[in-house]
Amino acid sequence: MKCGFIGLGVLGSKLCMNLLKAGVDLTVYDLDEKAILAAVESGATSSSSISDLCIGIDVLFTCLPSPAASAQVMEGDGGALLTLRSGSTWIEISTTGVEEIKRLATVANAKGIKTLECPATGGVHRAARGEMTLLVGGDEAVFESHRSLLEKMSGQIIYMGEIGNASLIKVITNLLCLVDLVASGEALMLAKRGGLDLGKCYQAITASSGNSREFEDWAPVILNGTFNTGFTTNLGLKDLGFVTDLGRSLNVPLKLAALVEQMFIESRAKYGGDAWTPHVIKMMEDATGEELRAPGFPDVIQPD
Questions:
Q1: What integer pLDDT is reported at residue 300 of this predicted model?
Q2: Domain range spanning residue 243?
Q3: Which pTM was predicted?
Q4: Given phi > 0 = left and psi -120 to 50 = alpha, else beta, which region is 164?
């Protein structure tokens, strides 16, 4: 089976490497030539364009930063849907809007191209270890025929049903993730102002009913001052935008989500959209003059 992979960013590069380690015949494309070179050094074949990559492949993976980027790659000039053969499969890993993935899947289907949405969740550091969870939406028979391929780049795989379902649950998980990040910062600041040792607080919280995967993974990068979650403020705001849009369309009042979104907007204005998401906690540090630091916490995000 010949596969193509478009989008070798922080997440995509890790998933691509997992496929290569598993021996998948993989051709890659990205706007970043350094990212392409790193994949080629690990066994991938490079392509000069999207259309060049799509010639003759059986499966196309895309892992892109926004719905607009996905639409451009699939439908733009020289886009993948113009070149992919009928009978091939497009697997969208990007986090995108529910209606947008439904729309693109319909366009692909009209050309005889099958679609699976497979947004990944669990944290970039888990992606490097092949431990990400894939949330899958699409025709169940198509999913089962590609299950063994998906297992080569991930840990747990959860089939959610029809197209759109996986994107919806991914947005929901990101809501919980980003709200928890803010709550973690507030909890640590209370501990700091209360005179507690933050290292011992981390031990206590992770052993308590207040623990979460989010706290376990992201509190250390606050405590060591790197803030490196591998996830930018712009990406966080993209996901929070999906959440608040869904709240309006489904008539669900999301007061907490709206408040967190405003905090991220403020963080972006202060530190820039490319700053890591815990900069929303740095705002609290700057406002109080207190740094949330503890010795002995290495960066949980392994460097590239």
A1: 47
A2: 168-288
A3: 0.89
A4: left
